[in-house]
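Open question from group meeting: does this chain pack into something compact, or does most of it stay loose? Before anyone orders reagents, we agreed to write out a predicted structure and look at it together. Recording both the input and the output here so the notebook holds the full record.
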Amino acid sequence: MTITITAFENSPDRGRGLARDMRVRWALEEVGQPYEVRLLSFKAMKEPAHIELHPFGQIPTYEEGNLALFESGSIVFHIAERHAGLLPDDAGARARAITWMFAALSTIEPPIIERATARFQERDQTWYKQRLSMIDERIRQRLNGLSARLGDADWLDGAFSAGDLLMISVLLRLRESGMLREYENLSAYVARGEARPAYRRAFEAQLAVFTAASAS
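Structure tokens returned:
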């Protein structure tokens, strides 16, 4: 059965690999599974056909036969469970990798998204600078813990896993802020993820969509 995922027809990230379909593309590339992509306009994302797949009208979604999933973390977890390469065989190591998946999405990502939202929606407010400073402090507290745990290791817990895939995907959202440069080991960690052939294939595939949309 062919795997089909959905993605932005014209992504607001301008081809930088930050849209959440990138995480799913990367996971599928890591495990060597072919897939098709159905591109959606913002209007189509709110229409009944897509709402049936994703009740909140977002991307990505994942379809395979009668199975339909939404939420990038859930989709990556499903891929990792079904195909070798993203979760260890050892039960303890597997549990730890899954824990890092949750940490990426539940602990590290929320203040990063809050920062992006504040910069986009609140920068004209008189209290914007103070709010941004408070958010940045929360982000740094989480990065301090992550940096200390990673240390000089290549990956979070032994071999590369779905935990690293999601964590790196989240950290990439901080690149323009300059905060990653404060943590040499985290910057190197992200660079190792970006250097993986599966990441490069996924990135180029997503970038090609933006390039085509920009040219039309």
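Observations to bring back to the group:
The chain has a mean pLDDT of 95.
The radius of gyration is 18 Å.
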